[in-house]
TrEMBL record:
Signal peptide: none annotated. InterPro entries: NAD(P)-bd_dom_sf, Sc_DH/Rdtase_CS, SDR_fam, SDR_subfam_1. Transmembrane segments: none annotated. Belongs to the short-chain dehydrogenases/reductases (SDR) family. This is SDR family mycofactocin-dependent oxidoreductase. Keywords: NAD, Oxidoreductase.
Length: 275
């Protein structure tokens, strides 16, 4: 396939939470499909109650190298999704450099554990501020230039299986990820007249630092009955999902192959949500 025949040739994508895990995989796969990339990550500890290590500047540098090795351009910056001005600035700079904006992958997120009536208010606030209000800032930064470009577009929000089926031990996270669904579907209706599609993806346990968070096991030890809410899927589930398999869905939603799909919740769960 020549470069101009690639499904996302000439398009530009904005990806949040791009330093590692699913975000890095999405950057690489969007680049391989022909898109240039604007990428942000906090690259620092973001939520005091997380039980897993934060991403680093070296992680984001690795994403940059991987995108460039695909032959595409990338503008990467250390920006926290809670920083509305920072998101607006990097999107504006990216549009100036690359000429347009077509695709958003709102992927940055955090997860931590605790029963709702026992967690500190700050733990609740950090999750809502990052997973939900951070997405609001992403939308405010990215939507005007996508409309302005006049080419339609695709906004992909990363919710969770826990944004469709609530699980115990992370009600604050579930609330944020259910919130992502409401935002996604309202926005899809508002942006339909501009030919811009908005859909959410709902991964189940995925092989990233978040997905391997061992602090979840402490919660399950303390409350063994909670395990029933974390059943296997319909397909064989001997391992966590590979980020690359989520990226298959991201690239499809970003491309014209999904032109009929908007306001949809796409599970990436091996059938877990139906069990
Ligand atoms: N891993 C799973 O099992 C799983 C399952 C369902 C949904 N998800 C969702 O997938 C998305 C990606 O998670 P992942 O599994 O790749 O986890 P991860 O922790 O490996 O990566 C998340 C990235 O987002 C960045 N980030 C977090 N808070 C940020 C902030 N405030 N500003 C900017 N960047 C920030 C982190 O630095 C990190 O690089 C998240 O929204 C998560 O909730 C993950």
């Amino acid at each position: 396939m020549s470069t101009s025949e690639l499904p996302l040739a000439g398009r530009v994508a904005y990806v949040t939470g791009a330093a590692r895990g699913q975000g890095r995989s999405h950057c690489v796969r969007l680049a391989r499909a022909g898109a240039d990339v604007i990428a942000i990550d906090a690259c620092a500890p973001v939520a005091e109650h997380n039980g897993y290590a934060a991403a680093t500047p070296e992680d984001l540098a690795e994403t940059v190298a991987l995108v460039e090795s695909e032959g595409r351009k990338i503008l990467a910056r250390h920006v926290d999704v809670r920083d509305a001005d920072g998101q607006r600035q990097v999107v504006a700079d990216g549009v100036e450099q690359f000429g347009r904006l077509d695709i958003v992958v709102a992927n940055a997120g955090v997860l931590n554990w605790g029963r709702l009536w026992e967690i500190p208010a700050q733990q609740w606030q950090d999750i809502i501020d990052i997973n939900l209000t951070g997405l609001f800032h992403t939308v405010q930064a990215a939507v005007p230039p996508i409309i302005e470009a006049g080419n339609g577009g695709s906004i992909i929000t990363i919710s969770s299986a826990a944004g469709i089926k609530a699980v115990p031990g992370s009600a604050h996270y579930c609330a944020s990820k259910f919130g992502v669904v409401g935002l996604t579907n309202s926005l899809a209706v508002e942006l339909g007249e501009f030919g811009i599609r908005v859909n959410s993806i709902h991964p189940y346990g995925t092989d990233t630092p978040m997905g391997n968070d061992l602090s979840m096991y402490k919660l399950l030890q303390d409350h063994p009955t909670y395990i029933h809410s974390f059943s296997p899927g319909a397909l064989p589930t001997d391992s966590l999902i590979a980020p690359n398999d989520i990226s298959d869905i991201v690239v499809w939603l970003a491309s014209d192959a999904s032109s009929l799909v908007t306001a949809a919740q796409i599970p990436a769960d091996k059938g877990y949500l139906k069990i």
